Request: fold
Amino acid sequence: MFAEEETALNVFQTMLLFLGGAGGIAAGVAVPMFYQSASEASEKRPNSQVCFVCRGTAESMCRFCSGMGQTPMTLGSGETRMSICVNCSGAGKKVCTTCAGTGIQPRYLDRRVFAEEGDD
Ligand SMILES: [Zn+2]
Ligand SMILES: [Zn+2]
Reply:
């Protein structure tokens, strides 16, 4: 009677192995598809991180004139005059080049750590 039970158990185990194997194959196919769709979803996730350079204003201060719109120009006589900044045409600001004027931080900068402003 033990032999008979063992046989029944073996059949049952074989069925489990078969089902498990089939399930494993299905999972092996499904998992990469799941990861692929998950990564695509994260790419499409709206990026609302504010640009760290312009803080979402989409403009950056002109470094040439420090936002004054004018730069001091020393004349031949030694006299100093203010003249319109050639870099920003007197606006004192430029379109933020980091976010290309979107005010949103580019995704490739997401996880970077930046030094405090004023180091350069
Ligand atoms: Zn300027
Ligand atoms: Zn910006």
